[in-house]
Amino acid sequence: MNAATEISNVDTRAIQAMDSASYMHPFTDTKELAAKGARVIVKGDGIYVWDSEGKKILDGMSGLWCVNVGYGRKSLAEAAYKQMNVLPYYNSFFNTTNVPAVELAKAIVGIAPDGFHHVFFTGSGSEGNDTIFRMVRRYWDLQGQSQKKTFIARNNAYHGSTVCGASLGGMKDMHAQGDLPIPGIAHIEQPYYFEHGKGMSEDEFGLKSARWLEDKILAIGADKVAAFIGEPVQGAGGVIIPPRTYWPEIQRICRKYDVLLVSDEVICGFGRTGQWFGCQTFGYQPDLITFAKGVTSGYIPLGGVLVGDRVAQVLIEKGGDFNHGFTYSGHPVACAVALENIAILKRENLVPRIHDDVGPYLKAKFEALVDHPLVGIANAIGLMAGLLLVRNKATMERFDANQPVGVVCRGHMFNNGVIMRHVGDRMIIAPPFVITREQIDEMMALIRRCLDATLDDIKARGWL
Ligand code: PXG
After folding, report:
1. Is 264 in the pocket of ligand 1 (CB under 6 A)?
2. To bridge 200 with a disulfide, which of 79, 113, 205, 282 should be the other Cys (CB 3.0-4.6 Å)?
């Protein structure tokens, strides 16, 4: 069907009115949104989405870091339809299982790093991290070390929006609502070279920032620390790519103090960094991996935990019942879609293609943005990239807190037909894996044009 025909059926104003009347959006000021009206997205195809006014937009964020195989994949829709007709739902609680869940567990183990042979399914990444929190504490209980309870995480990390996920995360604005974090969670500073690495080489800073973990373990007492959790590359925090020395040193420290290492791969997992998992790109072996998003390319909700052998063996051999699970753990329809999604990734070689082709191509083009007068730093890895907007490139002076340059820039991006997100003064992208070199050129041309427009705009506002 033609996009224009579908779009013309949508009454934008009516949808916006209903939206503001009844729909509370996540991470949104409902009153403010009601005043301006939400943009109504009605259709997607490949790397593009269309709004209800017929505007075509290049989706540089893959929805929310998830539509990795691109929009409009009939085989994913068919996998869901077929499974719904056969068995739309059954639980995995009471000595029962279902075929897609079993097959998916096997498929995920098949692409997982060495040392992973078990999968626990959830409905989302947040639930995956909640599962890990309980699983790790249960593991230490079973090891006779119940005092090993504390999780160490990082400032500006994102681990979800549930009570536990938001507590593990290091977002101050989230902690401020609902008295978080919950007890038993400590945070260290993030490995953001630009902010914290002045006067050091990147490699030196990688080691130094990893040793903040050692300092924290020693301050708490190694006998009380259960696990360290981190995203290979911080996504929602603004695509913060750690120095290459960081993760191997984190692993060394975790092993030295017998602290479990958790890799939250909700964004990086299933190929985003150019290998199946981000820990492979950064050269470390975690004990547990959280996944979601890319497992189904966002076509249907699904998340889970890859449980490494060390933890799985103890839980299985000594644990008895693990009193934890969700109605939708191992949902057959979600698992059927995930199976077809993984089949697409393999069939079309999408992960090696990021590693060898479109990833390096994007990196070259994106990092060249640093020649723009507003761009202080620009970095990319795989198909995720971020840049920092600065007032003065020579001194790297930042914009004032009351000059939301990222918001202004994002506005120009959206209005010019490209979705590039802002996180504070950082502008980020994570396009679908199916993006071609030509489409990267198209995206980069749009981004450059919008950076120019932002520069003119903020000059007019007197911010420069
Ligand atoms: N861990 C990581 C690393 C994530 O990026 C979650 C856990 C939670 O997953 P669920 O499926 O519960 O949302 C995420 C989710 C943003 C943004 O602003 C990022 C996420 C979610 C919402 C917004 O970039 N990532």
Report:
1. yes
2. 205
